[in-house]
Write a structure and sequence with these properties.
heterotrimer, A mainly alpha, B alpha/beta, C mainly alpha, A: mainly alpha, 15 helices, C: mainly alpha, ABC transporter involved in vitamin B12 uptake, BtuC, two-stranded antiparallel ribbon, 1% strand
């Protein structure tokens, strides 16, 4: 029954030239990058149809998106957003590597921002100490919060996707409450913490106003994830469990512990992003400001599009960063509502899910 | 071919049926004639092609060659529904029942009696009772199927076929999951159905069953018919000879010298699934010494797999102890057991023994990724892996085990069954663990690979390894094992060593004969641990 | 005091009804073996479609109809993807949930040229059953509700009975329990799965309509605010017994209604908003403690 053969090699007496072309085409179509790129292209086409249907011009809209995100004046800002989306993509990708979905990024993000705001705002310590301390504190608190989902899954059989989703709004609400009533700036109309003292702001990178050392921290995290994923025992175990959970358990992988570790790391990554956002301009925690840009779901989309593969995440994150940053510009100059960015994110993911299946079917047919 | 004496055509004729899967020939020119109102046994060892043949008769597979006639008319089934419409019914070895539903619901599912658009429960129950009475199938229409015994579940499967007016009933290994008394009542049902004009095919490899219930026998070996008999004039020896063919070649089993100390010992191990109320294994005790291969025979589903899983630690033991090299590991996690010295070749290669989307190199690394040469156990590199060492080790193993692949980066899922199995075996043997469990190590593997795998296992034993070999293949056990334990219904019902271990005796014990009719079982071999309640 | 308590029951029902429809959608999907976490997005789409439909047709029932039909169409994505093509329903649902958020916001701008929320003057909400006002007990509970509130319970019972007593219901249950067995008996598994998923979409449309035209008369961006996720949790909680859904959903409704009450006496809204999620998770854990302990004694 299980005699899966390799794709049949075409017989030698077929016309060689046409054959090679066909084979090259076949190989190109089978390349792992085809599915994500195809998904993006299709999503952009669908987006164009939607813009057309709304009576607007898709070409001006997309041009505005690209110009808004990539013109030299906005690159500083675009890079900072790219960092945040990469960070949130890590929060989704680490559990995704073992086949789990972390949909609680918002809560983890807010708790991290909250922790950093408290530490950086109130600890009377010099900058070189308080800044790392705030980042670390955020990682610890959000990591612990993310970790809650692991025992809920192993002990009580509540899937991680459900528990992260239910825990997240609780954390968001607590954060909102604290900013509004406990640690908020008194006398301000907006619910926000006081501006952080000069010494507790994330170190700048030259004279850039948005991108700062926080971006380097996130890049470092991605490098670490890439290293762990490709050449550490834990990363190997994550991939094994993601590919076949029973195989992992049979081989002696402690799946429960691995889930705990993955959720701690995911929570910590999100927490660090929250800390960096709070310690960047405008140097305060504003109620709702961590969530409303939608970094969590842009990151999740980037992680899904990359299939959780660490080396691809920076690339897929570019797409969603451009959509996010360029969305505002598109709204200004082409009069296309920025929510189109969310639409395209959704379409990319749906198309990706469907395309993966087509690809699977194709490979099954060719190996039958 | 037998010519029919009556005017009517035979119920079913299979003429020159052929089927291949890739390079494996499953059926080759098979002819089979089923007379109306008869019980016909299709016999053969595992892999002889019985199931393939029956799948084609029931429309689950399409034959590559040959012709199927039902009631003299040529038919072409594109799916089981066509077969059902033509009057066939099949009872699969693995039941296809809805556990949460009642017997009546299961029976009528898909062909429900209706009254004013609603399910007519009274009519369904009446139908079940009517069929039960007619064929002597004892059931209660309102019982929930999930709570029933295997025998009762099988009766539901038979009722399903009868409800659809099946006149030709195919029973695939019907006694595999039955207790001896359930076997008797099943045979009574089969006789009654045949006397009633139905045609029954029973697929089996158990000789005494064939002799007890069938009118005619067709024996398959390696996809071809090797014997046709009228049961009344056939003897057990004739059937065994036709079935194995190999019995004449005396299997060379180079028995090892004296086995060393006990490496694996299992005492009174039980595994119960309280949720389903099923006891998978019941107070099993066994020991395996260094330099010894202990075989575990048994028809699939008699607890062998649960035994292996409980020793490995992927399912918890309900009672009893497992000792590895003298250490009690009953509640230890899988990783610690493996670290102590346990390797396992699992039965389900794709589901448990490999990750089909990962490369050969990655598949052969699991369990070796934290130890030299791939992983470092101490120092700054602790927890990290050397990809170069992983690749070169994989290449070495591919060469040593003669795995046919385009390279160590090829996904294991695209290898042939035999080559994928070699990867699994390479991974597990290279642990050089004192204890090895090999579960169906040659299942779905071509002949050449079987030889090399057998050679590897014998080498492993010669090197002082203790091997627990679980297999359905009696010939494999005879070729390799020093002792053979036979499992039936979750218990070890016989232990046969040396000359006592013969195909006939193992086969009888596998069918539960030892537990069934006590006189047939020779004196000291029954249950070495003495009677247990 | 008496009126106060009946008023509270009315508030509980009001809060529970949208969740109840969505949970029923999740439960029937679970019956055919589709893990449906697209409820949140479908409900949001339903809410938008209801308001848009009511605005254009000038009738609240026109809004409900628009919601039901268009949400069923929206669910076709999941139906085809998960049931026919066997794609991962979780990833599709994540996609359609994002899509719903984006599309409703986008259309709000394009069609009505507003952002945030939309409640034009004259937008028709669903009529309340004011004729019941004088009936004792029932009056205070139902007079302020739309007909969709009692209908939710009728629909749940009807679906439960249909599943239990009709051949199609029997087949539907079998499809989820053992697809291979169902297919071997000639039942088209993919077809049952996709039509059920589409019907679930229609139910989410009703849920959204009740939310946007019953509970309030406005569409607000992301107004479902996690109710779809609570519905998913409710489905897990009752574990395949749809007739228990009302109990679970009323519990969540009570948590929400209690939150409003507490807000009324000065508790911060942020914390009471979190209560339904916290309580849902807590209830899930509590029901599983028994399960975990039983497993331990076996082990």
């Amino acid at each position: 029954m299980s005699t899966t053969e390799r794709p049949p090699v075409p017989s030698a007496d077929a016309p060689p030239a046409r054959h090679r072309a066909a084979r090259l085409l076949g190989a190109a179509l089978r390349h792992p990058a085809v599915v994500p790129i195809g998904a993006v292209v299709l999503a952009l086409l669908i987006g164009a149809v939607i813009i057309l249907a709304a009576g607007l011009n898709p070409i001006t809209a997309y041009a505005a998106v690209i110009d808004g995100a990539l013109n030299p004046d906005s690159l500083d800002y675009t890079f900072s957003v790219w960092g945040f989306i990469c960070g949130m993509a890590l929060a989704a990708a680490i559990p995704l590597r073992m086949g789990e979905f972390n949909l609680g990024g918002n809560g983890q993000l807010v708790l991290g921002g909250l922790t950093a705001a408290v530490i950086a705002g109130y600890a009377p310590l010099p900058g070189p100490i308080v800044i790392p301390l705030a980042v670390l504190g955020a990682a610890v608190v959000s990591g612990a919060f993310g970790a809650l989902s692991a025992p809920l899954a192993t002990r009580f059989g509540i899937p991680i996707i459900i528990s992260t989703l239910l825990l997240s709004p609780v954390a968001v609400a607590v954060g909102s409450y604290l900013v509004r009533f406990q640690i908020g700036e008194s006398g301000s109309a907006v619910a926000q913490t006081p501006r952080l003292p000069e010494g507790a702001r994330m170190w700048a990178l030259g004279d850039l106003s948005y991108s700062n050392v926080g971006l380097l921290i996130i890049i470092a995290m991605m490098v670490v994830f890439w290293l762990v994923d490709t050449r550490s025992a834990v990363g190997y175990e994550l991939r094994v469990v993601g590919a076949n959970r029973r195989f992992g358990a049979y081989g002696g992988v402690r799946v429960g512990r691995l889930a705990l570790g993955a959720m701690v790391a995911a929570g910590a990554a999100a927490g660090i992003v929250g800390a960096i956002i709070v310690m960047s301009s405008p140097y305060r925690l504003i109620d709702g400001a961590l969530i409303s840009p939608g970094y969590t779901f842009a990151g999740l989309a980037a992680a899904l599009l990359a299939g959780g593969r660490p080396a691809l995440i920076p690339v897929t994150a570019i797409l969603f960063t451009v959509l996010q940053v360029g969305g505002a510009a598109m709204e200004r100059s082409a009069d296309v509502p920025r929510q189109l960015s969310d639409v395209l994110q959704g379409v990319v993911i749906v198309v990706l899910a469907l395309r993966t299946v087509l690809d699977q079917r194709r490979s099954e047919r060719s190996s039958a | 071919m037998t010519s029919e004496t009556g005017t009517a055509a035979p119920a079913v004729e299979l003429i020159g049926i052929g089927k291949r899967f890739g390079a494996v020939v499953a059926n080759d020119g098979v002819d089979l004639v089923l007379r109306r109102g008869s019980v016909h046994a299709v016999m053969g060892e595992n892999g002889a092609g019985k199931s393939t043949l029956m799948s084609m008769l029931f429309g689950l597979l399409e034959p590559d060659a040959g012709e199927i006639r039902v009631d003299g008319k040529t038919v072409r089934f594109t799916g089981p529904l066509d077969a059902i419409a033509a009057g066939l019914g099949m009872v699969h070895q693995h039941f296809r029942l809805f556990d949460s539903m009642t017997v009546a619901e299961n029976v009528v599912y898909g062909a429900e009696p209706r009254r004013r658009g609603r399910l007519d429960r009274a009519a369904a129950a009446a139908r079940v009772r009517e069929l039960s009475d007619r064929y002597g199938l004892e059931t209660s229409p309102d019982a929930v199927v999930g709570t029933l015994s295997a025998g009762a579940r099988q009766r539901v499967e038979i009722l399903k076929a009868l409800h659809r007016e099946a006149r030709i009933l195919i029973l695939d290994e019907p006694t595999a999951v039955l207790t001896p008394s359930e076997v008797d009542s099943l045979f009574a049902v089969i006789r009654r159905a045949a006397d009633d004009g139905s045609t029954v095919v029973i697929v089996t490899h158990k000789i005494h069953e064939v002799l007890a219930v069938s009118d005619e026998v067709t024996v398959l070996r390696d996809g071809r018919v090797t014997g046709r008999f009228a049961t009344a004039s056939a003897t057990g020896e004739q059937l065994v000879h036709a079935m194995t063919g190999r019995e004449i070649e005396v299997v060379q089993n180079p028995r090892s010298g004296t086995p060393g100390e006990v490496a694996l010992s299992v005492e009174d191990l039980s595994v119960t699934d309280a949720g389903a109320g099923v006891t998978h294994i019941d107070a099993v005790s066994l020991t395996v010494r260094r330099g010894e291969i202990v075989g575990v025979a048994g028809v699939s589903g008699n607890g062998q797999h649960e035994l292996v899983a409980a020793v490995l630690g992927t399912i918890p033991a309900t009672a009893g102890t497992v000792r590895l090299l003298g250490e009690d590991v009953t509640v230890r996690p899988v990783r610690e057991r493996r670290a102590l010295g346990l390797a396992v070749i699992p039965e389900d290669r794709r589901g448990e023994g490999s990750a089909v989307t990962m490369s050969v190199a990655e598949n052969v690394t699991l369990g070796h990724h934290r130890s030299a040469p791939i992983g470092a156990t101490r120092g700054i590199r602790r927890g990290w892996m050397s990809l170069r060492a992983e690749r070169s080790r994989a290449r070495d193993l591919i060469r040593d085990y003669d795995v046919r692949t385009s390279g160590e980066q090829q996904p294991i899922g695209s290898l042939s069954g035999g080559n994928a199995q070699k990867v699994v075996i390479a991974r597990e043997l290279s642990h050089e663990a004192p204890v090895l469990i090999a579960e169906q190590p040659t299942q779905g593997v071509d002949v050449g690979a079987i030889e090399s795998i057998h050679g590897r296992l014998l080498e492993y034993r010669a090197g002082g390894g203790a091997i627990l070999l679980v297999s359905h293949e009696i010939s494999e056990l005879l070729a390799l094992a020093d002792r053979v334990l036979v499992m039936y219904a979750g218990r070890i019902v016989a232990e046969l060593a040396g000359a006592e271990a013969t195909t006939a005796r193992i086969g009888a014990a596998m069918a539960g004969a030892a537990a069934h009719d006590a006189p047939a079982a020779p004196d000291p071999v029954l249950d070495p641990e003495g009677p247990r309640a | 005091m008496h009126v106060f308590e009946l008023g509270f029951i009315a508030a509980v029902l009001l809060a529970a009804t949208p969740i109840l429809y969505a949970a029923l959608a999740g439960a029937i999907s679970a019956q055919v073996g589709v893990f449906n976490i697209a409820l949140e997005g479908q409900m949001l789409w339903g809410a938008f479609a209801a308001v848009a439909g009511s605005y254009y047709t000038g009738s609240a029932w026109g809004g409900v109809l628009t919601a039901v039909i268009s949400t069923a169409l929206f669910a076709v994505i999941l139906a085809i993807g998960a049931a026919r093509w066997k794609a991962d329903p979780i990833i599709i649902a994540i996609g359609t949930n994002l899509l719903a958020i984006g599309l409703t916001g986008f259309l709000l701008r394009v069609l009505f040229d507003v952002s945030g929320s939309f409640s034009p003057t004259g937008l028709q909400g669903l009529p309340k059953m004011a004729f019941l006002a004088d009936v004792p007990v029932i009056g205070p509970v139902f007079a302020g509700q739309t007909a969709l509130v009692p209908l939710a319970f009728v629909v749940i019972v009807a679906v439960g009975v249909w599943l239990k007593t009709t051949p199609a219901g029997l087949r539907l249950r079998g499809v989820g329990e053992h697809p291979d067995a169902a297919a071997s008996l000639g039942v088209n598994v993919a077809s049952y799965q996709s039509w059920t998923t589409i019907a679930a979409g229609a139910l989410c449309g009703i849920a959204g309509a009740q939310l946007a035209l019953g509970n309030v008369t406005v569409f607000t961006e992301n107004m479902t605010a996690g109710r779809g996720w609570i519905a998913v949790a409710a489905v897990m909680l009752v574990a395949g017994r749809p007739l228990w859904l009302p109990l679970a959903c009323l519990g969540f409704g009570a948590a929400e209604a209690l939150g409003f009450r507490l807000q009324g006496i000065g508790a911060p809204q942020q914390l009471t908003d979190a209560a339904p999620y916290a309580i849902t998770l807590l209830v899930l854990v509590l029901t599983r403690v028994r399960f975990a302990r039983r497993r331990q004694t076996v082990a």
